[in-house]
Amino acid sequence: MPVRTTDVFANILEKMDTSMNPFVMKLVNAQESGDLLVGFGPKLKSHIGAWRNQFPDMPSTDVTRPLIVEIGCHYGHTIADIAVDHPDALFVGIDITFKRVINTAERAKKLGLKNVLSVLANAGGLEHMFAPGEVNGFVTFFPDPWTKKKHAHNRLYSPKFCEAVWQALSPSGFLWLKTDQRPYFDDALSHAAAQGFEVTQSLPVFSDKDYSSYFMRRFQLMGEPWYGQKWVKPLS
What we know:
Strand order of the largest sheet: 1-4-3-2-5-6-8-7
CATH topology: Rossmann fold
Order of helices and strands: HHEEHEHEEHEHEHE
Distance between the termini: 31 Å
Radius of gyration: 17 Å
CATH class: Alpha Beta
Structural class: alpha/beta
């Protein structure tokens, strides 16, 4: 049986000297107190199929609310920008570092956002996190490109990842990628097409508005190119 991503982080927390990283205890305390909207560890198992119920301050747990997941939410700039524009949608930001998860949650709280949940998890275990058809969209802006050939197997975009996204998405759900690496972009195009995704110019929920990220703004300032694509899971 594969090791679930929630179990991996639970084991890390048990072995870690929390004095070495103050954000570890911040995360633990925030989840216990509810002071910040965060999630990690074994408790995430109960969220499968019930992610829309994890936003206690939203007016209702209406199952029709769009559920959008950002993988690699960094410090929360992008997810907060989108959530401000779409107060009736629900957003889950996933990252693998304690500091980024806390900073994303703190940013959302500062902005008064009740529809952003910041989660410590590894997207490599995405297939264990969501029920089939539960998610309306995935945002993946500038994932780690792992530019060295010997490290390419660590890339987020792979046949396994595209399959996991496909299973988690509802019909007409979307997948949105931005990257500064052309080889990565070309590989992602190939994997998405092989899974059955169709290229689209307009996204459900977001309409035609574009969104940037910390990395995108940095590349733009340096005059560096970037590449993007939007895909949709077609109606069956």
